[in-house]
Design goal:
heterodimer; A: mainly alpha; Cyclin A, domain 1; disordered C terminus; B: alpha+beta; 5-stranded antiparallel beta sheet; Kinase-like_dom_sf (chain B); ATP-binding (chain B); transferase (chain B)
Chain lengths: 460, 478
């Protein structure tokens, strides 16, 4: 279902385990090292993003295309397909699914431009081929096209967007305004009554207020107003909390939210979208963002005054409701979620692993220079976005193993070599893959050991 | 070295093995289903009635298999009880060579996760999308937006009042969507009452039809889906009297960040003209689930009156690709509801076409809706529901959730009965299926020898006799 993750095709059919993920990559691992394969996925996702940007797609369609691509290779091997054709088809389908369709011919022509930049020659620039690939892709995706991205989960967790949007006849804002108006009218009437009744009102009003008003007689009117305000706010929170809006749960400042968002963008280079539900990914991003901001105080952006107001109002309202105040510290905030911690940390590690490998594959300095054509402000935003990547890459790289240079040029060569070797092996079924597997030890164990190394680094 | 590499990749397509593998695994439509006849066609393509064939793995021989056909399938196939129809015999025997372990043609084991299990003899409606053509040659030009939407939403959503998608098959550059079969639809029921029996739809039936329709629409809306093409022809009813909403080709998810231009940006024109809400006629760029609610109001009225309530003429697009103002449709609405009063819809002044609306008047001023309604029903609650669905202001219009709670649904024993037909003595005709040459040789329902002399179309077609249906030879499967 498209409203509930738990009954969605995403949850029921497309969350896999690490062992089965490794099994699905057995064939490719005969032709490259686990680390090279990891880099190849970074490379392909990079190409998807480039192509998406050229087609003026937004982040969500691009993210959907990335997930389609990863899902496709759960069932297939890079070396037995043309990954460039596959990724173009992913972008083409994702654009339709996210309601920003692009014409098949523009996908082909833009893909040609992007792939030329990378000296990729095996992309067949024909609409017919792309259309055919679209059919195969849809079949391999089992026609499950609705993807749950962690962006919404992030906004829910941080209280930026209600989780229930659309479930109620009125939007929260509208309902809020309607109630506000009603309560205002009510208050006015009450005020008038009070004026008429004279001094007799004091006892009554203090009994209705949910806060024990101990204001002295001099600014009684003001205190009363605040009381009423408080009463209104309390009702409002209760009503809005009843809608599962997450309001008053906690406050995450804008800087942390921003960094979490950028981390989510990066997660599409990893496998987490095949392994964990979106809320775990979102929470992992928040966790990493909290760690970064505490590590590097300069990265923390100043909280705006409006947010300060929000935080204080949320604190007040929770008090008024008789609820515990929203957690002030990151650890308390994170502990408030009922999530399996081992799962959360496994996801965090999978994300953190990315940065070291990514940095050696494509140094962040290069990433920036490639975007020189963009406007100043955009470049600035980008460098800000990559700040966290640098920190994370540095944090986890005690000794970056730069045995051999492996960048996008090498990736392009490797893809070609893999396809060719595979074809030779398929042409001679008797010795297919035999030489390869004997050359290398069990690929699973090497890949796992690489991961373990990565994780140990993270722990340091 | 590098040159040699590129030349060799240029020679052999890297997708060669992949394609071979995929094509081998593909299960074809005609191996899985037998086409019983042609139902309808539209701009999207054609719909066929089909029956699921016995799984080739289970069948040892064609003849033993035939006798296991359930009676419902026999009826659907128009098979006399003691006779084995020869066309289907040829179908099964031709695919007998597949191994017993082949899961692809075993209907109980599904082709892919998410497919609905089914038994042989179950009847389905297969929607074949029109393949793209370049001249006379079939090409891939990409799946249409509506095809993608329909696949995406039907694959994800599952509800009693929504037509279930069994599976999708891609074959020969065409898309086949296999839906559960529904014997009736709202249009056919309305037609039967207006043309054949000339009696109104019994009110318990009408109430349950509307209630189940609202259940389905509420489900869609709570899943962030706007249908945007609700009309009697798209709302089906199966033989056990359950309403099934169909055709999600214009439906879309709306909780996702909207592209520039919002809902309007994607599709300039939504909802069939007679069922189009006033905010759409007035050019609203942003609209809500209320557009579906207006259409439900129109359908409700049509169930009562047995004819469309606002039957306006559609203004065609002029040469400048500008959307014309649907003056006639707006006029038809005003003829029944009276012109919009400012207090009924304060926001109307912000509508892009508001000025056009004001200047294209004057619209007649009667409000015949109360008398219109009294001619057809005496329930004041029923009238209340109708007027609340015909609320001009989309923000005030009843939502599906509110409508379901309307007291009218509790009248006359309520809507607890599962079947909309319960207690009704009206027998509705079954869906018309024709056997004419339908312009698609592949999807013909008859063997070539019979398809040649065009047979008269009739809903109760039976194979003329067994000796005629003797096929000339086994038809090779594509």
């Amino acid at each position: 279902m498209s409203s509930s993750f738990w009954s969605s095709s995403h949850c029921l059919h497309w969350l896999t385990t690490r062992p089965s993920l490794l099994t699905s990559r057995q064939v490719d691992l005969q032709y490259c090292t686990p680390r090279q394969l990891y880099c190849l996925y970074i490379y392909f996702i990079q190409l998807i993003q480039k192509l998406g940007k050229r087609l003026l797609l937004r982040q969500i369609p691009i993210a959907t295309a990335c997930v389609f691509f990863k899902r496709f290779y759960l069932k297939n091997s890079i070396c037995e397909t043309n990954p460039y054709l596959v990724l173009a088809a992913c972008v083409f389908v994702a654009a339709k699914v996210e309601e920003t369709p692009v014409h098949i011919k523009s996908v082909v022509s833009e893909a040609k431009v992007v792939f030329n930049e990378y000296h990729i020659k095996i992309f067949p620039a024909e609409a017919n081929k792309l259309g055919e690939m679209e059919f195969y892709l849809l079949e391999d995706l089992d026609f499950h096209l609705v993807i749950f991205h962690p962006y919404r989960a992030l906004l829910h967790i941080t209280g930026r967007e209600p989780a229930d949007a659309g479930k109620f006849p009125l939007s929260r804002v509208d309902e809020d305004q309607a109630t506000k108006k009603k309560e205002n009218d009510h208050r006015k009437r009450k005020d008038e009554e009070a004026r008429k009744a004279g001094l007799g009102l004091n006892n009554r009003s203090s009994s209705t207020g949910s806060v024990v008003g101990v204001g002295n007689t001099t600014d009684k009117a003001k205190v009363k107003e605040e009381e009423e305000e408080g009463e209104y706010e309390a009702k409002r929170i209760r009503r809005l909390m009843g809608r599962g809006s997450g309001e008053g749960i906690g406050e995450v400042d804008e800087g942390v939210l921003q960094i979490s968002w950028f981390i989510l963008n990066d997660t599409y280079r990893t496998d987490v979208h095949l392994l964990y539900p979106p809320y775990v990914i979102a929470l992992s991003a928040v966790y990493i963002a909290f760690c970064l901001t505490s590590m590097n105080s300069s990265a923390r952006t100043r909280t705006s005054s409006s947010q300060l107001h929000n935080i204080s109002s949320s604190t007040n309202s929770n008090e008024l409701l008789g609820l515990p105040s929203p957690p002030s510290s990151a650890s308390e905030f994170l502990a408030g979620f009922q999530v399996s911690l081992p799962t959360l940390f496994a996801c965090v590690q999978d994300i953190v692993c990315l940065y070291n490998i990514w940095e050696s594959f494509e140094p962040s300095s290069m990433r920036q220079s490639s975007s020189q054509s963009q406007s100043q402000s955009q470049a600035q935003a980008q460098s800000q976005a990559q700040g966290h990547a640098k920190i994370l890459a540095n944090a986890s790289s005690d000794q970056p193993d730069k045995k051999e240079k492996f960048g996008s040029a090498e990736a392009e060569q490797l893809v070609r070599k893999m396809i060719e070797s595979r074809m030779v092996d398929m042409g001679h079924p008797n010795n297919a893959g035999v030489n390869q597997t004997s050359k290398r030890a069990n690929p699973i164990s090497t890949y796992e050991s690489a991961l373990v190394v990565g994780r140990k680094r993270v722990r340091k | 070295m590098a040159a040699a590499m590129t030349s060799s990749t240029a020679m052999v397509d890297p997708m060669h093995y992949y394609r071979a593998k995929r094509d081998r695994e593909r299960r074809t439509v005609l191996k899985t289903y037998k086409i019983l006849g042609f139902i309808s066609s539209g701009t999207y393509g054609r719909v066929y009635k089909a029956v699921l064939l016995p799984s080739s793995s289970a069948s040892k021989s064609g003849s033993t298999n035939k006798s296991t056909l359930p009676s419902s399938a026999r009826a659907a196939l128009s098979i006399p009880k003691d006779k084995i129809p020869s066309p289907s015999t040829s179908t099964t025997s031709s695919s007998n060579h597949t191994s017993n372990l082949d899961p692809l043609n075993n209907p109980d084991m599904c082709m892919r996760p998410g497919d609905l299990p089914a038994r042989e003899g179950d009847v389905f409606a297969i929607k074949k999308f029109k393949p793209d053509k370049e001249g006379d040659v079939l090409t891939y030009a990409g799946i249409s937006q509506s095809g993608a939407r329909e696949i995406m939403l039907n694959r994800e959503l599952n509800h009693r009042n929504l037509v279930a998608l069994r599976e999708v098959i891609l074959e020969d550059k065409a898309i086949y969507m296999v839906f559960e079969y529904a014997e009736h639809d709202f249009l056919q029921i309305i037609h039967h009452h207006s043309q054949t029996t000339r009696t109104p739809i019994p009110s318990p039936t009408l109430r349950r039809l509307l209630h189940q329709l609202l259940c389905g629409v509420h489900f869609l809306h709570s899943n962030f889906v706007l249908h945007r093409d609700l009309k009697p022809a798209n709302i089906l009813v199966n033989s056990s009297g359950v309403v099934k909403i169909g055709d999600l080709g214009l439906a879309r998810l709306w909780h996702k960040p909207l592209a520039q231009g919002g809902l309007f940006g994607g599709d300039k024109v939504v909802v069939t003209i007679w069922y189009r809400a006033p905010e759409l006629i007035l050019g609203a760029k942003h609209y809500t689930a209320a557009v579906d609610q207006w259409a439900i109001g129109c359908i409700y009225a049509e169930l009562l009156a047995l004819r469309p309530i606002f039957k306006g003429d559609e203004a065609k697009m002029d040469g400048k690709k500008q959307l014309p103002f649907q003056r006639d449709q707006m006029g038809k609405i005003c003829e029944v509801l009276g012109p919009v009063k400012p207090d009924q819809w304060p926001g109307i002044v912000h509508m892009p076409e508001y000025k056009t609306y004001m200047t294209s008047g004057p619209y007649p001023n009667p409000n015949p809706l109360p008398t219109w309604y009294q001619h057809r029903s005496s329930s004041s609650q029923g009238y209340d529901l109708l007027t609340r669905l015909f609320e001009w202001d989309p923000a005030r219009r009843l939502t599906a959730r509110e409508a379901l709670a309307h007291p009218w649904f509790q009248e006359e024993g309520g809507v607890s009965a599962k079947s909309v037909f319960e207690g009704s003595s009206v027998a509705y005709p079954t869906r018309r299926v024709t056997h004419e040459d339908n312009g698609d040789a592949k999807m013909g329902s008859l063997p070539p020898s019979m398809a040649q002399p065009r047979l008269p179309s009739s809903s109760n077609f039976r194979p003329a006799s067994a000796n005629v249906t003797q096929p000339a030879k086994k038809k090779p499967r594509v």
